[in-house]
């Protein structure tokens, strides 16, 4: 199908609010494409029938296409407000007529197109229906059953609704929290008041059932499927069966007419109302291969499976299609490969992070407060996703991350349950390996001055957001402000560890495998920052993590390996050497006795 033609004021679906500072690159989109492809593969294996279902009531014989390859066809395209069409003599209903279209032949003569403007009737403006009736016939024959030269085996057709009905996008419930309801009502009557704020007043209305309105499809692509398969009558593949048009007398099938909507995105649809009098209409007829046709059907089926499972929100399938529709194919291929590497490094970093904290026996040289702060940051992001329209897969992933961060607190500190009061409370106590040396002193010192900076930045951003942004409630404002601070200033939480490394003059206690994988992911993010179009300030923000990791690498190079310092498993190199020498001493003495 050709890309949708530009025209009309399509209504775009509202997406869930995201922080402006969050990086939403094409790499994350392609990672979703890969995950959906894998999920679709397994879903098709488990939920699709392995073999066509046989119907004992249907005779078991072979059926074939009534038409031959390359046979010339004539086409008639009618528009009518009636679903059943019989007014073939109405010249006003005939919108498009083509002759000598070669069937299932790939060439310029087999593709025809037409662009026009259509004037809507009053019935269509008032939620009326409009149908496209497309008929094909062998050249020289008529599709009209009342015509004396009509031959039932020479003509076929299909009906398609060119007007669809979808629920109207819900009004934005966000509002300015500093303005009360009375001021908002007065501002609505002011024509100079910004339109965006006027729309926010819909939050004052009670929520009701969704309103369904009609939308115009500006593109109609008619594909003749290149299918000459000999099917068994009682074993037609389930994905093909709904589109097979069987001729009753011979049992054979007509050529399949497929109205291709795969590339027709929601934001290209035009909302129909009383003010819309003329709409654009782009028509195209062309052949399509059997493989490509089945691929479109399978993809649409997989999107429906995802939506039914809650793993995909409405509109996300359009975003995935938009990547393939508007992206550079070479850049798309490179991005897919890099996205796979990004997912692999994420998994390896996660795996090594779990292994490190599971085997770690000493907190010497590690920042325990950074672990606690990381948990609260992850928990804030989870609450923010819960407050917005987010798929359960993203919520589950964030929830598991919160549980892991809390588990890491248990490895970094002692967690006790205090039952002295009416309500049991959790109490956290530092481990001896952390409090018994300089690590706690340096960690407290670094976090003290860092908290001043973070608190000042968080308060300033929250005030700015309260004054200039719109929010659903005070709770949403708090979550949005905290989440934005996490995304913008989260990298600053790695600074206490840099300070501890500087004071201890050692980096032997760090999980270097995990940090290596994260650094590789940062390099991939840098690649996307150069490739993808984005504001300069946002592009510079991508390199902030690079600075932290480069300082880590510099510290590893500057500070030599200290054999007296314990590693993440609670052992020191000198202890191992002493144990080995002590175990070798008796054997050496025995050898000396034997030689003597």
Automatic annotation (TrEMBL):
Subcellular location(s) per record: Membrane
Composition-biased stretches (Basic and acidic residues): 587-596
Compositional bias annotation for Low complexity: 12-23
InterPro entries (UniProt xref): CLPTM1
Pfam families in alphabetical order: CLPTM1 (PF05602)
Compositional bias ranges of the Gly residues kind: 1-11
Main location: membrane
UniProt topology in membrane: Multi-pass membrane protein
Record region (Disordered): 1-23, 174-197, 576-596
Keyword entries, A-Z: Membrane, Transmembrane, Transmembrane helix
Keyword Flavoprotein assigned: no
Bilayer-spanning residue ranges: 330-350, 371-386, 449-468, 474-495
Entry's family note: Belongs to the CLPTM1 family.
Annotated protein name in UniProt: Cleft lip and palate transmembrane protein 1 homolog isoform X1
Gene this chain is encoded by: LOC107020477
């Amino acid at each position: 199908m050709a890309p949708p033609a530009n025209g009309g004021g399509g209504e775009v679906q509202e997406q869930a609010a995201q922080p402006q500072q969050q990086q939403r690159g094409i790499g994350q989109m392609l990672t979703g494409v890969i995950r959906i492809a894998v999920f679709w593969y397994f879903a098709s294996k488990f939920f699709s029938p392995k073999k066509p279902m046989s119907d004992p009531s249907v005779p078991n014989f072979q059926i074939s296409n009534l038409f031959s390859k390359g046979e010339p066809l004539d086409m008639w395209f009618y528009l009518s407000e009636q679903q059943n069409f019989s007014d073939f003599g109405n010249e006003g209903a005939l919108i498009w007529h083509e002759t000598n279209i070669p069937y299932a032949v790939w060439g310029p003569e087999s593709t025809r197109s037409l662009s026009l403007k259509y004037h809507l009737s009053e019935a269509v403006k008032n939620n009326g229906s409009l149908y496209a009736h497309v008929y094909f016939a062998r050249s020289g024959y008529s599709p009209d059953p009342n015509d004396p030269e009509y031959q039932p085996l020479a003509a076929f057709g299909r009906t398609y609704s060119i007007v669809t009905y979808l629920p109207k996008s819900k009004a934005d419930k966000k509002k300015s929290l500093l303005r009360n309801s009375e001021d908002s009502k007065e501002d609505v009557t002011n024509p100079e008041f910004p339109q965006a704020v006027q729309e926010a007043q819909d939050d004052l209305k009670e929520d009701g059932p969704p309103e369904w309105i009609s939308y115009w499809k500006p593109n109609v692509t008619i594909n003749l499927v290149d299918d000459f398969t000999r099917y068994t009558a009682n074993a037609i593949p389930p994905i093909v069966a709904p589109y097979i048009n069987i001729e009753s007398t011979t049992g054979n099938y007509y050529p399949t007419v497929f109205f291709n909507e795969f590339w027709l995105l929601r934001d290209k649809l035009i909302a129909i109302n009383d003010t819309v009098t003329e709409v654009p209409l782009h028509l195209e007829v062309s052949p399509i291969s059997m493989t490509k046709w089945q691929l479109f059907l399978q993809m649409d089926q997989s999107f429906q499976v995802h939506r039914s499972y809650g793993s995909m929100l409405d509109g996300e399938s359009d975003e995935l299609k938009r990547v393939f529709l508007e992206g550079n194919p070479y850049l798309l291929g490179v991005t897919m490969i890099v996205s796979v590497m990004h997912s692999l490094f994420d998994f390896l970093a996660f795996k090594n992070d779990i292994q490190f904290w599971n085997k770690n026996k000493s907190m010497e040289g590690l920042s325990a407060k950074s672990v606690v702060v990381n948990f609260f940051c992850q928990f804030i992001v989870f609450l923010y996703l819960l407050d917005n329209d987010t798929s359960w897969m993203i919520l589950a992933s964030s929830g598991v991350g919160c549980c892991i961060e809390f588990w890491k607190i248990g490895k970094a500190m002692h967690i006790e349950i205090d039952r002295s009061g009416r309500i049991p409370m959790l109490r956290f106590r530092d481990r001896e390996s952390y409090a018994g040396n300089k690590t706690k002193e340096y960690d407290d010192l670094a976090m003290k001055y860092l908290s001043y900076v973070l608190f000042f930045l968080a308060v300033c951003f929250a005030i700015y957001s309260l004054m200039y942004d719109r929010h659903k409630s005070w709770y949403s404002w708090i979550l949005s402000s905290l989440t934005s601070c996490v995304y913008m200033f989260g990298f600053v939480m790695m600074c206490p560890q840099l300070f501890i490394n500087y004071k201890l003059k050692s980096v032997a206690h760090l999980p270097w495998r995990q940090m290596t994988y994260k650094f590789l992911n940062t390099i991939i993010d840098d690649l996307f920052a150069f490739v993808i179009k984005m504001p300069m300030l946002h592009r510079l923000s991508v390199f902030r993590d690079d600075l932290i990791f480069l300082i880590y690498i510099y510290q590893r190079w500057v500070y030599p390996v200290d054999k007296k310092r314990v590693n993440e498993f609670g052992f020191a190199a000198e202890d191992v050497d002493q144990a080995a020498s002590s175990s070798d001493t008796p054997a050496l003495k025995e050898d000396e006795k034997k030689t003597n």
